[in-house]
Amino acid sequence: MVFIKSKILLPTLLNRQKAMMHLLSISDLTKEELLEIIDLAVKLKSERYRNVVTDYLKNKSLAMIFELPSTRTRVSFEVAMADLGGHALCLTPEDLQLSRGEPIKDTARTLSRYVHAVMLRVKDHATIEEFASYSSIPVINGLSNLEHPCQIIADLVTVQEYKGKLDSVNITWVGDGNNVCNSLILASAILGIDLVISCPQGYEPDEFVVKKAYDMGAKLVFESNPQKAVEDADTIYTDVWISMGMESERDERLKNFSDYQVNEKLISFARDDVIVLHCLPAHRGEEITDDVIEGTSSVVFEQAENRLHAQKAILLKMIGYEYE
Ligand code: CP
Ligand code: NVA
């Protein structure tokens, strides 16, 4: 195996503007920053495929606190730090004095003295807001009930790979107006993507997120009929009907979402070259069928892989060394 020392990224890092502080919402990024992260993720993906050694985060540490389970977010952040020469610590509230009542604000200020960034997956978005307000190091949202910004960055990398562009793509969201949908709405507003949202009545995205997106110039169309909603779609995106923490609503949700399954029949109403996204984990037979996930339109595992490249780009942007 040949290892090559990377030279590719240096110009990107040299051009880096003042580092952003936190990534709690995708709307914390400007259009320029978001496109820069996507571009960096694509370059880092290519470097990994060519076995290029990248130690841009040598001597840097990331703490990760998970109030909820995770496969992709946890492993991709941990591997991203290792690949970049840094170190990640995976923590649960039970591992920490948080479980014995130590306040968030004390935990945030203490961790700020040890590590260079903290990634949190929280049940309540207010927790990460509070943590960030006391943290003197960058805080990254690894999913909250309100948003999943890191996911959407990987999704945009995937759309760019398959569609060759991010402007003038038509994305249709089918299903629950949840945390992932909220971040997609705000990302679409930042980039000017045409987004159609198809949700059952009562499960639309948060009103204030939609208002914020319109204020940012979003081009959103709400179409409750999923077959009409996917007519112009070159990308269909769905997610679970029952997000983490909503398990008690399971029976009611299964009933109310039954017309919103992404199946072969639904994708037959979209363009021939439509791609299907799912942030995973998927519940086959509920929001998506097994034949669609395993079928030729599905890019869900490329999308999952892109979490790794996107996390690296996010980390470099937030805690990469200043070369100026
Ligand atoms: N998509 C996503 O965030 O997956 P995990 O819950 O496995 O991290
Ligand atoms: N909407 C889902 C996303 C999981 C990655 C949830 O919050 O459970």
Describe the structure.
The protein has 13 helices and 11 strands. By secondary structure, the protein is α/β, with parallel strands linked by helices. It folds into 2 domains: 10-148 and 308-318, Aspartate/ornithine carbamoyltransferase (Rossmann fold); 151-304, Aspartate/ornithine carbamoyltransferase (Rossmann fold, 3-Layer(aba) Sandwich). Strands 9-8-7-10-11 form a 5-stranded parallel β-sheet, with helices on one face. Helix 4 packs across helix 5. The protein is globular and about 55 Å long. 46% of the residues are buried. Bound molecules: phosphoric acid mono(formamide)ester and norvaline.
Total domain units: 2
- The arrangement of helices and strands along the chain is EHHEEHEHEHEHEHEHEHEHHEHH
Enumerate how many helices there are, as a single number. Answer: 13
**Which small-molecule ligands are present, each listed once?**
phosphoric acid mono(formamide)ester, norvaline
Shape field: globular
Helix content: 40-55%
Distance between the termini: 33 Å
Structural class based on helices, strands and sheet pairing: alpha/beta
CATH class of the largest domain: Alpha Beta
Mean pLDDT: 93
> How would you sum up the major sheet?
5 strands, parallel
Q: Which strands sit side by side, in order, in the main sheet?
A: 9-8-7-10-11
Overall radius of gyration:
19 Å
The CATH architecture designation of the largest domain is 3-Layer(aba) Sandwich
Report the uncertain regions: 1-5, 10-19
CATH fold naming of the largest domain = Rossmann fold
The tally of strands reads 11
